[in-house]
Amino acid sequence: xxxxxxxxxxxxxxxxxxxxxxxxxxxxxxxxxxxxxxxxxxxxxxxxxxxxxxxxxxxxxxxxxxxxxxxxxxxxxxxxxxxxxxxxxxxxxxxxxxxxxxxxxxxxxxxxxxxxxxxxxxxxxxxxxxxxxxxxxxxxxxxxxxxxxxxxxxxxxxxxxxxxxxxxxxxxxxxxxxxxxxxxxxxxxxxxxxxxxxxxxxxxxxxxxxxxxxxxxxxxxxxxxxxxxxxxxxxxxxxxxxxxxxxxxxxxxxxxxxxxxxxxxxxxxxxxxxxxxxxxxxxxxxxxxxxxxxxxxxxxxxxxxxxxxxxxxx
Amino acid sequence: xxxxxxxxxxxxxxxxxxxxxxxxxxxxxxxxxxxxxxxxxxxxxxxxxxxxxxxxxxxxxxxxxxxxxxxxxxxxxxxxxxxxxxxxxxxxxxxxxxxxxxxxxxxxxxxxxxxxxxxxxxxxxxxxxxxxxxxxxxxxxxxxxxxxxxxxxxxxxxxxxxxxxxxxxxxxxxxxxxxxxxxxxxxxxxxxxxxxxxxxxxxxxxxxxxxxxxxxxxxxxxxxxxxxxxxxxxxxxxxxxxxxxxxxxxxxxxxxxxxxxxxxxxxxxxx
Lengths: 314, 271
Description:
Chain A is about 75% helix and about 0% strand. Chain A is built from 14 helices and no strands. Chain A has helices spanning about 1-30, 35-40, 45-55, 60-75, 85-120, 125-140, 145-160, 175-210, 210-220, 225-255, 255-260, 265-275, 280-305, 310-314. The longest helix of chain A has about 35 residues, at about 85-120. Chain A is globular. Chain B has one domain (about 1-30, about 55-270): MetI-like fold (Orthogonal Bundle), CATH 1.10.3720.10. In chain B, helix 2 (about 60-95) runs parallel beside helix 5 (about 130-155), helix 7 packs parallel to helix 8 (about 220-230) and helix 8 (about 220-230) runs antiparallel to helix 9. Helices cover about 75% and strands about 0% of the residues of chain B. By secondary structure, chain B is an all-alpha fold. Chain B contains 9 helices and no strands. Chain B has helices at about 1-25, 60-95, 100-110, 115-125, 130-155, 160-170, 175-210, 220-230, 235-265. Chains A and B meet through helix 1, helix 6, helix 7, helix 8 and helix 10 of A and helix 4, helix 7, helix 8 and helix 9 of B.
């Protein structure tokens, strides 16, 4: 277990370093002078030179990177060009808004979709299987931003059951927060269910084809025991990995849902900073998302042996 | 087996319909998708405007058709970029092997380790939010998956006896790659390209929806949806039809992709 831990930690480091270099290099790849981009067309040469010096643009690239990385490691990611706010607290603040919604949505989706997918596989090509797979394929094909708009129209505007747009934090008013979060959550859950059902089903099918399942049947175990003890447990591994990838993907992908429901989350912050060319904030968002993504995958890898002890022994 | 054929037929015909609409839109739409009308603002669907008009009095059906050709053009270019780049990298890595392979694959795996949408958003903030920017950003974001698949096929193909035979016959390496290696990589690539086409359509709509795609007034399904938001209470059709277009297109591509995978890779049948 300790070997697995150190192995995975070591493997995660190059990815983090590469993403830091990529995020750093990003601002150099923008055509033109970053200082001129930040100050606009009417900047005078003196303030341009000042900003260049402040940003360290007059130093060599490796030195610039070291300086930037050192500051980043101390939690200093600079300040927003648009608002002057420090980047890291801003990004972390927004991150928690998105993270809470994503975590709840993926948990709920997994709780519904994984059993459904496994049952579909068990009843392969039966009526239940075909209807579950069809439903999953349809859900998978509906873009989350349109699903969100339609839910908003039906439940918010036509039936008037739920507030239409906006966000209330849980610390302010828990009841209102819950009401505001229902529609965004439902949107994400419905969308992720489609992907998860298909994944859980196909990995269960793979397991059901294994020799040890035939063996378990041959030795006369009841179907329920075979499924519970041999099939479902082993089928969970690939789905577990997918959940990790899904959590990371949603950090960027949630932007569209946050736009529909005007939630001040990380995705929306990233998009707004791209639109406003607020490069320090873009860098901060990308760095935080990359870091969290690597972290999630690390945790997923480390918990994997719980479902498949063979992984730890290798 | 029967459902697979039925799904493939539905997928193929809906995709065909979208392609047809996109092609027709290149030469003809019922109305000019950009012309602003002052009398017919936010008109509900009727015999005059089948799918209604938007807040500027523009015909929704015409805009949807024009948007279809924009979406398909961007997605096709994106897939072509990804396939071209990925194939070059994949063949180089899988055929040459050695250090070339190690370095190329290390970079490739680092790129694969990140969510595609994040990579695309990062690239988009460099390349700029327009049609070319989307194609470059999404193409680069999808290329690593192509490279991985191509490398895998090439690595097993280069050990084949007929490749050795061709080499003994004195054929050049380029000839071998073109004649013996590449044609055999096509089947898995088609399956991947079909899914990528779906991803590209979805990503393009999402980016347009966020305001990072093709800028208005040029219509795309995504920016039409984004523009519908303020009017959704009074003009429901503005939000309904673009979303239906995206969903039906994606659904048909998904059905087609599943059927293709079953057909080209029989081991996966039913999975």
